[in-house]
Amino acid sequence: MAFTITPRQGLVVWVYSLKQLRQLRRYGTIYYTSRRLKYVYLYVDQAMIAPVSEQVKKLHFVRQVEVSHRPELDMNFGEHVGQLEKSTEYGTHETVGPKILLTSKEILEKDS
Q1: CB of 62 within 8 A of CB of 15?
Q2: Which domain holds residue 96?
Q3: How far, CA to CA in Å, does 83 sit from each of 50, 56, 94, 95, 100?
Q4: pTM over 0.85
């Protein structure tokens, strides 16, 4: 019997009241609940994200449902360690060398 990892994705469920919190347990695993902002972070199997989000939206105590975009992001930061990137227009990046901080005296000497 082999252990298999099922990919999961988060759902942010904004609610009017947290009294019906137990009803959300049947749709997935409740990871976090914010009592002040009135939302519930729910983990659901990635294959079931569309039907579950539609079912949760139909509940009378749910204000809004948002799907987490974390699986779409590249979480491998090891390739980018030690590289500085300069942001330009519309999110394109240009790699530049290390930043050198100059004092005002050095700037004046450099300009003259």
Answers
A1: yes
A2: 84-111
A3: 38, 43, 11, 7, 14
A4: no
Q: Which residue has the tokens 């240009």?
A: 94
Say how many domains are in the chain.
2
For residues 59 and 21, the answer to whether their CB atoms sit within 8 Å is no
Residue type, 100: I
User: How far, in Å, CA of 75 to CA of 51, rounded?
Assistant: 26
H or E segment and range at residue 34: strand 29-34
Residue 3 domain flag: no
Same domain, 68 and 88: no
Whether 64 and 37 map to the same domain: the answer is yes
Q: pLDDT in tens for each of the 112 residues of the chain?
A: 799 999 999 999 999 999 999 999 999 999 999 999 999 999 999 999 999 999 999 999 999 999 999 888 887 877 777 676 655 555 555 555 666 677 778 878 877 6
